[in-house]
Amino acid sequence: MSTATTPAPPIPAPMRLRRRRAGRTTANVLKFAAIVFFAVLVLTPLYVVIVTSFKDAAETGPENAWALPSVWTFDAWRDAWNQLSPSLTNSFKLVIPATVISTVLGSLNGFVLSKWRFPGADLVFTLFLFGLFIPYQAVMIPLTTLLADINFPDGIPRLAFAHIVYGIPITTLIFRSYYATIPDELMEAARMDRAGMLRTYFSVVLPLSAPAFVVTAIWQFTSIWNDFLFAVFIITDPSKWPVTVAVNNTTGSLVTPYNLQMSAALLASLPTLVVYILLGRYFVRGLLAGALKG
Amino acid sequence: MRRVRRWGPGLLLVSPSIVLIAVFVYGLIGWNVKVSLSDWRTAEKTSGWAGLDAYRDLNSDPAWDESVHHILVFTGTFIVGTLFFGLLLAFLLEKGVRGEGFFRSVYIFPLAVSFIAAGVVWRWLMNPAPGDRASGLNVAFEKLGLGFLANDWYLSLDWGMAAMAMPAIWALSGYIMALYLAGFRGVPEELREAARMDGASEWRVYRHVVFPFLRPITLSALIILGHISIKVFDLIVAIGGKQLITQTPAVYMWILIYDARDYAEGAAIATLLLIGISILVIPYLVYSVRAERRA
Amino acid sequence: MPRVRFPRRRGRELRVTAARLALLCAIALLFVPAAGTAGPQASSCKLQVFSWWTGGGEAAGLTKLIKTWNRNNPSCPFKNETVAGGAGTNAKAVLAQRLAAGKPPDSFQGHAGAELRDYIKAKQVLPIDSIYRQYGFRKAMSKQLLNQITYKGHIYSVPVNIHRANVLWYNPKVLKKAGITAVPKTWSQFIAALEKAKKANVIPLSMAEQWTAKHLLETVMIATIGPTRWAALWKKGGNWSSSGVTTALNRYKTLLTYTNRDAASLTWQDAGKLVVDGKAAFNIMGDWQDGYFSGSKAGDNLALKPKVDYNWAPVPGTSGVYDWLSDSFTLPKGAPHSTAAKKWLGFLGSKKAQDQFNPVKGSIPARTDANPRLYGPYLKWALRQWKTNKLAGSLAHGVVAPNAWAADIDTALGLFLNNRDVERFQTALVNAAKKRAT
Description:
The structure holds three protein chains of three kinds.
Chain A (H helix, E strand, L loop, with lengths): L25 H28 L21 H41 L5 H10 L5 H14 L6 H24 L4 H9 L4 H9 L4 H17 L2 H6 L8 H6 L9 H31 L6
Chain B lengths: L1 H35 L16 H7 L2 H32 L6 H9 L6 H11 L10 H8 L16 H26 L3 H9 L4 H30 L2 H7 L8 H11 L3 H32 L1
Chain C lengths: L1 H29 L16 E5 L4 H17 L5 E5 L6 H12 L6 E5 L5 H5 L7 H7 L1 H4 L2 H7 E2 L2 E2 L1 E3 L1 E4 L2 E4 L1 H7 L8 H13 L3 E4 L3 H24 L9 H14 L11 H9 L3 E6 L2 H7 L16 E4 L6 E5 L1 E4 L7 H11 L2 H11 L2 E2 L11 H12 L1 E4 L9 H17 L2 H15 L2
């Protein structure tokens, strides 16, 4: 059966970014100044974090927040690495499978709920969406009891499962909005070619999904990596804790070593930052194609 | 039967998710509502019926009034602030600028920093120490000759929670900027050109051509920001601990459940939060379903 | 012909999807072990101990105990399950959830006294009178202490240490500069000294976030109404509307006017640092302040010289009274390794363990037969005081008030810090007592 040649991406003209050469008008100069000004504002807290992480313990404190270190010390970084590195592996073991699975689930759900609907699909979507709003603190006890009762494998798998389940609403939302922009003609064409649901998905929809996958993956990576609440409640074995709990544990119960706290926080956020920088452009491009519009 | 065979596979594919959501979201919400109507007020688990007792206690609890007041101030400031800065940054970038990729990354990066870490830094920045002990932003203001801007930040009785919203605005503005940037770039250039041909000033082009395209984005952003705002916990505790002066319903819920072990009252807060959120979400859903029907 | 194929193809589509889905579920189920295989590992014994001692002297002290335990009990090595965060905030929540889920550790840390009452009432901890008999703890600990941690005739925890809450810390140099010639012993002397400090342009009394305000409140109340009436307040029928309490609350209000405006943004160490940095005259805090002041730099402490860079005295009006609190360990019901757990408790109450732990931690032992030579200058003083003082249980640290009552007081205090209305504060306290006293 001859399928149509690979269809052109259904992304409308706006995708072709019309980059006007920024002329040296006053307006543009002012704009650029404003852009730089805001960039400085946004980076200011980062400055404080970095500078504190390189200070000696005695020097750190809110009263010295702005000062550069008198001696650039690496103690805090060394300690942070020692305290965090065992749990970094846990975090990766957690985030990568959980992100992959929840993204795939979101894609399948989004596809069905937008393009291969069944009676009540809209209601199901609404009910999914409501799951975004459940306040986790209130349900931690029955949640952990439930997970224990069904005997789900303890440790990281259990935590990953929880993240996958609670990731369903947002991933479905993102993919559904994105797939809604795929012209129905493409779906019709596939049906004309006698393609069933899975064939349509794999040959028509999936090839077009890259931007949405990236957007969703970035969002899920960030939220799962930075989650503390689920991790500390669901995993009881300290050796299996992800990095967010290790960062929290750098707070001594009596004395807070600020330089260690800052270096640990930076260290823990580096992987997410890297993901952002590398995939940042896809993020915006993904949104450009309607992933989170309306 | 033919019809079922048509949409059957779809339903089947989504069914695992349906089951999971039914159990882990609605099952737990049901549990929560049940507990809020029970007499489980101490560490000893009891499952008698107590009706609206927990809600009544909450209603007469001055800490609850404080919490609600705080979250309203926080939410208002957070949503308005983030929408404003997100829109502004998107506006500044939308026509293209040198190093756009770099600036975009800079603006979005705060989202990558966990709220706990951001809380610690902002706690320093918003240090309210007066006079010669001033540090953080207060001392920076002094040095820049902007001393009049120095204030009590999150310790202020009336506007403390507005200050508390600043780290949240810092974290989310970049993300909202990305949403709006997509919106700006989704406006067909031809429409703008046409308006300019008709003699409209650039401002009118924005107002009448571009901004209408942004309306659905604002609605999405409102939902996303709204749900973050109501659930925010890490940030508040990192900056203000569990003190009453910065307490929100989410924090109070934690205190009731894990410190006071008043499970029914904690569950009552959760139920009230969900009801509050429904009020936000349902109009959005009605709007978007209608919008889809129209399209 | 396509017509004929059409319906069968659709039907096949459905069946194929169903088959794939079933296969996926089957694979998923493979990961779920059969019910009943999950359960306590009886084979390898690991003593799971839950605490929030994650930093500073506490962690160091715990490490010593762990080493000794592991040496003497190689068959059941120590498994340290600590969660950090605000003097146990996160830890208590995680613990509550584990107990509710029926997965208790072998032992967990808790403040001795009313704080444990929730666990006792929920039958989550077991009485350990037999352990006390077996190891002779009753002879080694103060009778007052034992009375105050006995609930309905039984004891539920082994106190490892004693901290003192009613300590007035001061900087001798600052006092000299302000012209304060003698450390205040009475209320009026205190106010006079605070006035002098105010005139000398230093913070008279440094305070930190809300819980330290609660800490301050209890010392003022004990100073005003005395330990006997203080103890009576916490029993059913305790008179919170008495004039004594009113006086105490008014005195508290006065004291607050001498504190720094930005208290709610400081940690207790920040407030202490203000004193040793010469920016404040006095600070009222528990004796972990001594650990912070004199402890080693390696532990992020200040390494200052006691009696030179800083000094201490009982809170004015409380000489002869020991406002005490204690870290203790319990025996949870259903502890996975209860023999080892009981041995752990016996170990904790021993002279060896307490003299190993406390000098490093910065507290005195709960036992009365400590070796004073192991302890620093402040702790030597505290040891002497413990022998003769009358005991008053701490409010802010879980001795006299169970959790729900303490939370109610927190709310009332938070509101008072906002509005400074003594009448409303007292009414709220009266109501809390009516609601919570048992």
